[in-house]
Amino acid sequence: MGRNPRTAIWWVRRDLRLYDNQALSQALANADQVIPTFVIDHHLVRSNRTAGKRLAFLWDGLRSLDADLRQRGSRLVVREGDAVEELARLRQETEAVAVFAEEDGSPYAQRRDGRVAERLPLALCPGITFQHAAAVRKPDGRPYTVYTPYSRAWRALPSAEPGAMLAAPHSLATMPDLPSLTIPGSPGAAAFPAGEGEARRRLTAFAMGPDAPIYRYALERDRMDLVGTSGLSPYVRFGMLSARQAVAAASAAIRSAPTREACRSAEIFLGELIWREFYSAILYHFPRVARESFRPELQGITWDDDPHSIEAWETGRTGYPIVDAAMRQLRQTGWMHNRARMISASFLVKDLLVDWRLGEAYFRQELIDADLASNNGGWQWTAGTGADAAPYFRIFNPVIQGEKFDPQGDYVRRWVPELAGVPPAYAHRPWDMPEETQRAARCRIGKDYPGPIVDHGWARGRALAAYGAARQRAASRKPGSRGARR
Question: Which of 146, 205, 273, 482 sits at a 20 to 30 Å CA gap from 378?
């Protein structure tokens, strides 16, 4: 008599792909049949910080993964509830030898996986980042907290080669009769069709070939009126594309660059991928950043947090066109250009003096590609409170930013239809339009479109004062200071 087939559970989390999947590869290497499993975690899907568009993208991605599995003789098993209980129940049903999953360094995932490992044989594999968060350290073993030396150390480690990618299995033996829930949700946003196939198509279109957009990245990435970015962030966020695939594509583009300027552009794109790895490492080593400022001297800022100002920012009614266009793009599509993210974040924190954590939570609620590490890192960079942050006194002028990165106002007019008839010269300062120009443009300031809710020059001074006061209070509390001795 033949032996019973060895069974393993592939616990799908943020790796909705078959190609270059190290967790799936390890499951296949240790078992005769693999059960692809997704557990709908109530903590995540019912959170008020989980965007409906992000969930729709996830559900579509799971449907795409299930279709790919069915082409190989398998299918996705979907369960709902506490991960520990659901996986334990599934292991009992299948007599699985182990559970294989891609490691996630976020605080919640670490706690959840610790609970699973207490009851089940859990094997965690790399994949969410190219370099593990613990792999890039200073010579003395401490983690880096500044990007540039981190980047140098990261680049000194072995790089990614296309030949190192793990092939997707041609067939996948599984157990056919396991109970499974229907994948919930309706189709997601057309701007981001979900699935591994779409992710790989976009990567090829962006990074491969002598005329690939990656070679114009340095010139176009900050232009909000152009399609100058990769559009890959939602796919990397959910692992429809592995970090190794993205790094390998960028590295190959650098080697094949037709000109020095093209090579520089590809290098800058690789640098953006390294920023993602840097923020993941910061969250891994300093999980407190999920709740508080990385810089202790800026933890005591006195915020204004005016609810009317926050509502105006969220709904794109601040009177500053570039900010309003960014926030409306976010609400309508679940995505926002990276330069727009920096401008709108700076406006909330520095112009409106609103706690960066409120803005970070709102972005996490709305963005399809929201990732705790990158979202937190980006907000703390803009607020000046994070590891390797922008100086606290760097405050974006929304008018200058708009005129520089949306010079004709095309981005503004796309997302703020009230300004559709405004001449380019006034696209980022419509309050300067003469009365006759407002009438001709059918945009009367204060009626059809709001005037600025705050004066930028005054707000800049207020922010500098608030930050300066927080720094002074922190300095007075240090041991040995005069304030500490009182």
Answer: 205
Mean pLDDT across the stretch 467-478? 91
Name the CATH architecture for the domain at 7-127: 3-Layer(aba) Sandwich (3.40)
486 pLDDT above the threshold of 50 = no
Q: Please say if 11 is a catalytic residue.
A: no
Task: Identify the H or E element spanning 288.
Answer: none
What contacts 327, CB < 8 A, 6 or more positions away?
Answer: 313, 314, 315, 316, 318, 344
Q: Examine domains 7-127 and 296-472 and report if their fold is the same.
A: no
pLDDT at 485 over 50: no
Is 272 a residue of the active site?
yes
At 218-229, the pLDDT tens digits run 999 999 999 999
For the chain, the domains span 7-127, 196-285, 296-472
Considering the candidates 11, 59, 335, 356, report the single residue annotated as catalytic: 356
Write down the mean pLDDT value for the chain: 94
What would the pLDDT profile of 310-329 be if each residue is shown by its tens digit?
999 999 999 999 999 999 99
Q: What is the pLDDT of residue 115?
A: 97
Q: How far apart are CA 170 and CA 28, in angstroms?
A: 12
Alpha-helical (H) ranges within 292-371 are 307-315, 321-333, 338-346, 356-366
Q: Does domain 296-472 have CATH number 1.10.3720.10?
A: no
**Which one from 10, 59, 154, 275 is the annotated catalytic residue?**
275
Contacts of 158 (CB under 8 A, 6+ apart): none
Instruction: Catalytic residue, from 30, 220, 303, 431: name it.
Output: 303
Which CATH class for the 196-285 domain? Answer: mainly alpha
314 is known as an active-site residue: no
